[in-house]
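PROTOCOL LOG
Step 1. Enter all chains and additional molecules of the complex.
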Amino acid sequence: MTDQAFHRQQAELLPQRAAPMTQVGVVGWARTNLFSSWLNSILTLVALYIIWVVVSTLIDWAFISSHVSGTDRFACTSEGACWAWLDQRIQQFLYGFYPSEETWRVNLAFVLLFPALAPWLFDNVPGARYLRWFSLAYPIIAAILLAGGLGLTVVGTDKLGGFTLNLTVGLAGIVLSLPIGIVLALGRQSRLPIIRILSIVFIESVRGVPLITLLFVSNIILPIFLPPDVSLNAVIRVIVMVTAFASAYMAEVIRGGLQAIPKGQYEAAQAMGLGYWQMMRLIILPQALKISIPGIVNTFIGLFKDTTLVIIIGLFDILGIANAMVSNPDWLGLSSETYVVVALFFFTVCFSMSRYSIHLERKLDTTNR
Amino acid sequence: MATTALTSEAKGLEFRRLLTDERSRGIIFQLAVALGLLAFIIFIVANTLANLEKAGLEPGYGFLNDPAFFDINQRLIEYTSQSTFGRALVVGFLNTILVSSLGIIAAALIGFSAGVLRLSNNWILSRLVTTYVEFTRNVPVLLQIIFWWAILTGLPKVRDSLSIGDALFLNNRGLRMPAPILEQGFGWVFAAFIVGVVATIVIAKWAKRRQDQTGQTAPMLWIGLGLIIGLPVIVHFIIGQPLSWDIPERTRFNFAGGFNVTPELIALWFALSTYTGAFISENVRAGIMAVSKGQSEAAFALGLRPNQTMRLIVIPQALRVIIPPTTSQFLNLTKNSSLAIAIGYQDLVSIGGTILNQSGQALEVVGIWMAVYLSLSLLTSAFMNWYNNKIALVER
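Step 2. Run joint prediction.
Step 3. Record the structure below.
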């Protein structure tokens, strides 16, 4: 190539041409994302077929050929799902055996949960300072609303059931396990050998066994451990064991947060003359807890799903009530419908929380990729 | 007078220093905690002894030698209702191990494929897998176990079994499968299999050394498959087919021949492996994404093909991130297998529960449960530490 040829210039620029049809728009997108190769095209078609079969069967089953009204399963004559029970039983699924004229208390406790959680989960919540005080009072308010007292009719804890029980056990477990988890995490990092060993033994032995054995402990062993004249009711016992279980996991989450704090923070705090507790309270824990929130939310999701295990020791949470209904002669054999509804309850709560936790992780992740 | 005042003041100072000095304060604090714990334990032991006496129970493991008087359908070793509680517990433990190992294999396969498929550049495929992962992860595993069990026990009766190729039969009593019959000489086939495995390992080592020295590669996948599968098959035919299948046949009310897998085992296995598989797929995805893009770009620049890049560059580095959380998922699966009790699969916890009800020896049974699960988890974490040390990046 000569210099001349290289430097030759076009008299005028050619007009810009639109990108080829096959590279842009829907077609282009489909080409790169769905049909980029033979294998991909086949996979796409197989996937489309699976989706078509599943979705059409589901829609047909759940909506088109389903039956909605009636008082027992014999009213359902169509091929598809039988939703007749929803009308009768949904109250029980939500509130268990809570007296129906008092269910507003459960609803109120549930609604109040949102302002109590908001200042911890989101930035820029108006009036966050006052709301934080409200959150601290919330557990007491909720307990009074649920159990009664202060002018409200007393409702025994044996009446707690359905989704209310799942939420109560899950929330109580996570709220109570937070402070214990913090103490255990600090204990595990402590320089005092006895404290450290005790914390490690507790954390590892709780994490090493299935929750179900702990629930058996709550049901059978706890009464043996307590003085003969003291008896705790089943729900309280479950909350005690669930809290013990959750605090071991919480401790590990918080330890992760503590370890992520740069050593300089500790050293700077010590250089300022802060004592151990001052350093932890003012410098380390606020930072460590903030980065642990995604982990705490994930622990909560796990714990919340595990609250269904209470059926094994004979409590009627939402799954227990579903089981009871499936074996009820009026509704015998409606297992798919019932379990799908229960699954949707859990999916809604857990999925939204896991989205939140992912969102938070992204926000906290300041590294560039 | 003055001297006594001084000494009492000095004593006060001394005492205060005991509390302000970091070391002595630490010791005092620990002593206080230890004493508190000791008091707590004494309190519990005293209560326990009082309660046990009131209930007329004798603490100790002697009851393990008493006859159990209950049946176990699902058993891997010989067991009758005349066997002891101890043997029943062993049966239960083996059932836990059975469903956990089947579950771990399936969960690893599901998790790995789902993790890779989610990163696929096929949009619809990755969305499909995402739906599976999100749905299974966010629904309690106990609910899934009960759901699949209800589906399986709701299948047609034995008479109307669904059949697959007239060899597999699915009905409300489970899955009836052809049973292998090992005739004389099968030992040779098994020996050939062992020889194949050992030979593959030896050749793989040799091939790696040769590749390190000369750069020549050997088709290890085909060599391995040939040795591990091909060799036993050839031996099998040479000896005269010592392995045959006992294919189930319909009789009037049931099946003759073959063996039956209970719906409990299938439901538990399926639910546990899809549930844990979803979590593992997240670990796999995170692991692959953690390998920096420069690594695969460098591999492409060196002329490696995409699947070579994946196999030789990306996966080995991703494994370092994937293995630790995946091991703990395996452990979770093992622990979750205790949910078997809800559908009546007789695992360690379920059989323990029966024993607990029959004998009343609650403390001992719970003690056995905890000891078994704790040792499993300690073994797992020991393995994990060993593995972590082995593959840890050697930093310079």
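Step 4. Note key features.
Chain A touches chain B through 57 residues (CB under 8 Å).
Chain A is about 70% helix and 0% strand.
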